[in-house]
Every structure is written in structure tokens, then in C-alpha cells.
């Protein structure tokens, strides 16, 4: 009986953490809309700027986060900011924990 309760508590905690992660993602998405507008304004004007995704995407927390959701968020931010595919790896590696790189 105790094992079942612990399992339920663990599942509830995982769901809570997942919701917190998704909420933080939504906050970041809303916060970067302003940045996207300004990058769209610069488009076509010959302005060459390099976006630092480290400032836009939270570091991955292996204990509390879903890796698939993290990669989806990273990919969306990279595309939204029009980061060249060539730069994705160099932008992604600092966001991952040391043990996974």
C-alpha cells in the first residue's frame, strides 16, 4: 500500500514539474516575441547580428525536465530567431548538462 502511495506522489510531482517547465517555456516564448519583431525589422537591411540562444532557452535540467520538450523549445527558438542550422550545435551544447555532452 505504501509503495502505491509513493508511486502516485512521484507521478504527481513529475506532472507538476512538467507543467512548471511548460509554463516557463510559455513565459520565454512571450518574452521573445519582442526580440522576434526587432529581428524581423532588421531582416533585409543587411544587418548581420548573431542571436545567443543561451539567453533565450533555459538550461536543461535532467532530473526535472523532459528532453523532448527541451529540444522542441530549442528548435522553435532557433527557427524563430532565424539562427542558421550551422550554429545550432554551438548554441545547444552549453545548455546541456556536462554528463550528457
Describe this structure in words.
The chain is mostly helical and 101 residues long. 59% of the residues lie in helices and 0% in strands. It has helices at residues 2-42, 67-80, 88-92. It starts with a helix and ends in a 9-residue tail after the last helix. The mean pLDDT is 78.
Summarize the amount of helix as a percent range: 55-70%
Tell me, what's the shape?
elongated
Number of strands: 0
User: What radius of gyration results from the CA coordinates?
Assistant: 17 Å
Helix and strand composition category: mainly alpha
Helical segment count:
3
Q: SSE string, helix = H, strand = E?
A: HHH
Biggest sheet record: none
Portion of residues in beta strands equals under 5%
Unreliable stretches, pLDDT < 50, 5 or more residues?
none
Mean pLDDT across every amino acid position: 78
Give the termini separation. 40 Å
Topology:
Elements lengths: L1 H41 L24 H14 L7 H5 L9
Key traits:
101 residues; mainly alpha; 3 helices; 59% helix
In summary, what is this structure?
This protein is mainly α and 101 residues long.
